[in-house]
Amino acid sequence: MTSTPSRRACRRALVALSLVAAIGLAALASRSRVAHADDLADEADLQFNLGAERYRASDFRGALEHFLASNRLVPNRNVVFNIARAYEQMKLYPDAFRYYTQALDGETDPKTRKEIEDGRSRIAENVAVLNVLTSPPGATIYINRKDLGPRGSAPRTLALPPGSYKVLAELPGYEPAESTELDVRVGRETPVTLTLAQILGVVAVMGQPVGAQIRVDRDDGPEAGIVPSELSLTPGHHTLFVSKDGFQSAEMSVDVPPRGRVAVRPKLVPVTGNVVVSSDVRDALVEIDGEPKGFAPTVLVLPVGPHKVRVSMAGFRAVEQDLVVRAESQARVEMQLTQVDEVNAASRVSESVEDAPSSVTIISSQELRAMGYPTIAEALRGIRGLYVSDDRSYASVGVRGFGRLGDYGNRVLILIDGQPTNDDYISSSYIGFDGRTDLDDVERIEVVRGPGSVLYGTSAFSGVINLVTRSRDAKTHGEVALSQAGDGVGRARATAVVKLGADAGAWTSLAGAHAGGKSFFFPEYVADTPPTVAGYARNVDGFDAATWSGRVWYKAFTAQWFLHSRKKTLPTGGYGALFADPRNTFADTRGLVEGRFEPKVSRDVQLSTRAFANLYSFSGTYAYSDADGGVERDQYTGEWAGLEQRIIYSPIEALRITAGGEVQRHFKTHQQGRNDQQIYIDRTDPFSVGAGYVVGDLTPSRFLKISAGARLDYYSTFGSSINPRVAFIVKPRESTNIKVMGGKAFRAPSVYELYYTGANQLTPPAGALKPEEIYSGEIEITQRFSSTITATVAAYTNYVRNLIVLSGGGTEADPNMYANSASPVMTMGAEAEIKRDFRQGLMLSLTYSLQHSRYVDNVDSLRQVPNSPTQLGSLKAAVPILARTLQAMTRLTVEG
Fold first, then answer.
1. What DSSP assignment string belongs to 701-722?
2. By the 8 A CB rule, do 451 and 776 touch?
3. What's the rounded Cα separation, in Å, for the pair 531 and 533?
4. Could you tell me the CA-to-CA distances from 92 to 7, 185, 662 in Å, in that order?
5. What is the distance between the alpha carbons of residues 284 and 287, in angstroms, rounded to a whole number?
6. pLDDT (tens digit, 9 = 90+) per residue, 196-224?
7. pLDDT over 90, % of the chain
8. CB atoms closer than 10 angstroms to residue 527
9. What is the pLDDT of residues 806-836, one digit of tens each?
10. What is the number of alpha carbons within 13 Å of residue 885 lying toward its C-beta?
11. 850 touches 830 (CB < 8 A)
12. Which of 142, 200, 215, 593 lies 20 to 30 Å (CA to CA) from residue 167?
């Protein structure tokens, strides 16, 4: 049922319609005169008049038909308004709202806009409004399905019957977009915004040089990216402009497929200049901007512009310099390298000698090869503060005025790549042919003076000497050598080195030596008759020795082994044996195997796990008269193993903390002694060792470093010992280095001292023998005058107590026994050294040491310490003869 409009409403509608009709007719006439043929305009005018007549007769459906026909013939915004009014009269409010909205588009007349807006407001409460926006605007809008036709372009306000709708949007060059289901209700405006993704293609620019700027379509346009990069561009043809300072620009055309990918590889040609790089160290590595380019001296062709030149070589501090290369010109760079020796033994990490918290001297590979030192002892001779003794049984080293006769060097710890080699019988260090046949496998020797028990425990009493063996960088090769050392020692060796890649390799060597020995005359043995024979020892000083050693590694894992044996004749009649008797012989065999796993867990943490097994055996034969028991035979066999775990933690660059623990089990310590009359000792006394340590290194500024730590050792034989160390390293200037150091070390009583018994020797009571202790303080100043010349002065004092000495008269009534001496030893000393580092085969070193050791048990009667020379001096010099192929080196040492 339809309602009939009131007369008043009809009159208002007729008046409005007449006005609109007049406006519409005028517009139609205007449009028809300007843009259309007369017949089309006439037909549109006719349809409009018919519609107006039907509207006045309240036949709104008929009016709508004529208005729609007129608008199809000649579209007119005012006719659209009449269509909206017809729909409104028919109460088809959504259609009326839609046409009111179309009539409002583009309307500029304020009066007409208000009239249209009033009409839309009248029906707003009767329609459901959907307000559609798109990004970007201008997209064609569809409701529910495309086949129903478009609803205009966004932004668009649509009036719809209440219900659920989906809005679809399309725009050329963009992916279609679709909304979710929208619940549209009467009297409410529902907004919806659709974002359309632009249809693009990808251009991957992968050429050279890295960092070149990329611009698109205009060489003066904004930067679109840098090489390498991926650019998202609209499909079609584009031009890429690629440029970088120091290079010739390039222009490239590219067709970008829609939704596709295309790659281009520009290669800019650099604009170059020449650079001559030289250094005072030949064959130093030259790097330009972090990339190796050759070895000095070298001529390089480089792109113009700024560069960073770096020259480096192992054992030297790298030097960097900024350089600007100009087109078609030549620049010169001359570098001076400063030698920086590295040491591992001082802190058990690699660090420069200047930063090590100890007094350190490095015997370099250049010196080892130039001098051809046959033994460790000969290499140590002439080092400031060190002196060597040799009783024709064993060579031993004294450090800073303390090296007691008969101690077999047991207060100095000898290492091979950080693994201790002292035995567990007397804690002897082996530095002569008793230690190794030659030094051909040794790259350098690190000499660390002062107490080192904080990291190594026992025997690191007066110093630590570390033998650093062949580098991992050696290439695959083999070696065979014959040589002669002093005193008629003939040697032969064979070595194989295998490189299995950047992180793996192995080397092994086998060497042997034979010596007839020296002849000696000892006036102490001269008898009244016959004087022509007594006192001479001939052909009783020879020895035979052999060494097998090697190393294998893969990434963080390393395994090394070492086996050495020497059999020697004793010419001196030592231990009371018959003088010059060829039956006086003894043999030492020392073996070890060690495995390490040292992974870098993170930037801050490195772990080190070390497992080791050791062997030492001794066999001695000594001839005595029948009345004294005849031939005496002493034997010892020691076997032990252990495990050490260490962690190095650096939470910040200025702090490094080293903490670790170690356990050892000496499960076989078998001593046996017999002569022709009796067995006077046959026992084994196994023991255990446990230790924990922590060391902190703090560098709050480049002028100061502080190192401090302590270690606790526990022995099942005597108890515990705590040993601290502290060092302050001050650098007031770049060329000045000052070390102030103090520490404590110990030597544990050995198996021999604790348990050996003989005809006139007893063991000390259980727990009576305490470890030896040393307290040390030192200051060392090093001044560098140039890249090759340095001078060092040092002053120190050492206080030694609880020395283990053999007491008693050695008779049945007064037997010998090891005991702690009540007489401490005080040493004070000073050292000086000036050195020109090896450079092109030229080297010079001059050292002087003044040391004074005394027993201080009685201040009124200070006794001199035996085997403690007061003054030491040395001169070393090397000069090239034939460039780099032949050089001469000599050494002069003085002890007095």
1. ETTEEEEEEEEEEEETTTEEEE
2. yes
3. 6
4. 21, 16, 97
5. 10
6. 888 999 999 988 888 889 999 988 889 98
7. 53
8. 9
9. 998 888 889 999 999 999 999 999 999 999 9
10. 1
11. yes
12. 200
3-state secondary structure 765-784: CCCCCCCEEEEEEEEEEEEE
Q: How high is the pLDDT of residue 773?
A: 97
- B/e letters for 670-696, b = 16+ CB within 10 Å, e = fewer, are bbbbbbeeeebbeebeebebbbebbbe
Q: Are strands 536-537 and 520-521 parallel, antiparallel or unpaired?
A: antiparallel
DSSP-derived secondary structure for 337-375 = -EE--EESTTTSS-EEGGGSSSEEEEE-HHHHHHHT-SS
Token readout for 226 is: 């840098």
Q: How many CA atoms lie within 13 A of 746 on its CB side?
A: 21
Question: Which DSSP letter does residue 577 get?
Answer: P
Q: Long-range contacts: 283-288, Cβ < 8 Å, 24+? A: 283/313, 284/311, 284/312, 284/313, 284/316, 284/335, 284/337, 285/311, 285/312, 285/313, 286/310, 286/311, 287/311, 287/312
State the distance between the two ends of the chain, measured CA to CA, in whole angstroms. 139
What CA–CA distance (Å, rounded) separates 519 from 349? 46
CA distance 461 to 155: 91
Q: Is the peptide bond preceding residue 306 cis, with omega within 30 degrees of 0?
A: no
Q: Are strands 351-352 and 342-343 parallel, antiparallel or unpaired?
A: antiparallel
Is the Cβ–Cβ distance between 226 and 213 less than 8 Å?
A: yes
Question: What 3-state DSSP class applies to 87?
Answer: helix
- Taking the CB of residue 768, how many other CB atoms lie within 10 A of it? 14
